[in-house]
Amino acid sequence: MVHSAGRLDFAALQQRARNRGGRAERAARARAAHLIVFDLLELDGDVLLQEPLRRRRAALEDLFAARRLSAPWALCPL
């Protein structure tokens, strides 16, 4: 998500995502984007959809705490 005027701005993120090449690099420097994760639907091949949200959220927090999460940059080119 992109911050704009002190709040999250999805439209700004969409606009930034349209850039390619050098324009994408300049846009990334000018307006940093942040990944917002709020749920975990699968973990290590196990589908968690039947688990309560509080358990999925706890598992997600554990992944961040253990630094097992990283952005899939190779799958999401600028």
Please tell me about this protein's structure.
This protein is of the alpha+beta class. It folds into two domains: 1-33, no CATH class; 37-71, no CATH class. It contains three helices and four strands; from the N terminus they run ββααββα. The chain has helices spanning 10-17, 21-30, 53-65; strands at 2-4, 7-9, 42-43, 46-47. The chain has a two-stranded antiparallel sheet. A hairpin with a 2-residue loop joins β3 (42-43) and β4 (46-47). It is elongated. The two termini are 14 Å apart. Mean pLDDT is 79; it is low at 72-78.
- Can you give the mean pLDDT? 79
The helix-and-strand class reads alpha+beta
N-to-C order of helices and strands: EEHHEEH
Sequence stretches where pLDDT stays below 50 over 5 or more residues: 72-78
Q: Quick one: biggest sheet?
A: 2 strands, antiparallel
What is the count of structural domains? 2
Which terms would index this structure?
single chain; 78 residues; alpha+beta; two-stranded antiparallel sheet; 40% helix; elongated
Question: How would you summarize what this structure contains?
Answer:
With 78 residues, this protein is α+β, with helices and mostly antiparallel strands. The chain folds into two domains: 1-33, no CATH class; 37-71, no CATH class.
